[in-house]
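>> received
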Amino acid sequence: YKFEKTYYSFVPQKGYKAIVLDSIIRDHLSSNGRIGEEQLLWLDNELKKSTKDTVLLFTHVPIIEPYNSPNHRLLDADKVQEVLNKYKNPILVFQGHYHGAKITQMENILYVSCPSLVSYPNAFRMITVSNFRKKVVVNIENKETRLKNIQKLSKLLVFSHNLYTGEEKDQNATITIKK
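>> returned
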C-alpha cells in the first residue's frame, strides 16, 4: 500500500475496512490530539462507503478516554463520535496514548484502549476479529511482558496502577456485535 496523507484506509480482506486516523497535533507542542474538519469529512465519506463492512478504526489519541486526563484528550472527540454514531455496522476502534487497558462498548461501536510495552502494565493485546453473516466476534487477550523485573519497576513509576491495568473485563474479553 502507498498512502498520500497521514490518515488513510484500505481493505485488508473482503468484509473489512481498515481506517487509520492521524490524531496528532502538529502545529504546536501538545499531549492532546485533534482530528480536524478535513479528516472528519474524509472519515464520514469512508464510513459511508463501508456500511456493509466491519470497520477497524485505528487512532493514537483515544476517542473515548480510558480514564480522565485533561492533558491527553482528543479535543474534538465529540465530533468524531457524532460521525461514528451515524453508522450501524460494527465499528471497532483501537486506541492508545494512555497506555492503559480499557474496553468500552456503545451499541455497535467497540472502543479498545491498548496498553504499552514501554510503561506499566508492560503489555500488549492479541486481538482476533471474526466476521460472520449476522455478527462479529472480537476476542481480546492481554499479554504481559515476561520481564517481570521491568514490570515491577514500571509499576513504581505510575500514580495509580489500577488505572492502567483496568479490571479483568478490560484485559481479556470475547465480545459479540450484531450486524
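>> The two ends are 28 Å apart (CA to CA).
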